[in-house]
Amino acid sequence: MKRSVASVVLGLLAIAWLAAPAGASWASTGAGSAAAKSTTVAAPGTLTLTCNGLLAASIKADWVASATPWVTRYEVRWGTNPSSPTGSSLVTGLTFTTPALAIGTWYVTVRSAQGGWRSPTSNQPSRLIISVLGVGACL
């Protein structure tokens, strides 16, 4: 039994579609082939920052889960330059506490992640780390 190229391609596309996470789409890259197009991963909801204790030089970040149901983790990024974070961590929950930070204003963002896909960044709140009698403190 001979199969046409079109039926083979359609069969492969059907298999790929069934294996793709929600939100993925496919585009033709030439006769008889297909490739995944970028997908949309929803950013997490509002990010809020609180000080991690009275005399602690770290920041606790909390955010609302992404609306994309297949997101499995979040990438938290922090730094003193709002456009160039110096630290990052992948977490599975909806909260993260930074390590001890140096004096200065620190900006934090979070992105939803699944495999190689990343969402746009969340809002970018900040906190100020100061020194009180030689001990770091968050404001």
Could you explain how this protein is built, in words?
The chain has 139 residues and is mostly beta strands. The protein has two domains: 5-37, no CATH class; 47-138, Immunoglobulin-like (Sandwich), CATH 2.60.40. Helices cover 11% and strands 43% of the residues. It is built from one helix and eleven strands, in the order H-E-E-E-E-E-E-E-E-E-E-E. It has one helix spanning 5-19; strands at residues 25-30, 33-37, 47-51, 59-63, 73-79, 87-91, 95-97, 104-114, 117-118, 126-132, 135-138. Strands 5, 6, 8, 9, 10 and 11 form a six-stranded antiparallel beta sheet that branches. It is elongated. The termini are far apart.
Q: Which short descriptors sum up this protein?
A:
single chain, 139 residues, mainly beta, Immunoglobulin-like, six-stranded antiparallel β-sheet, three-stranded antiparallel β-sheet, 1 helix, 11 strands, elongated
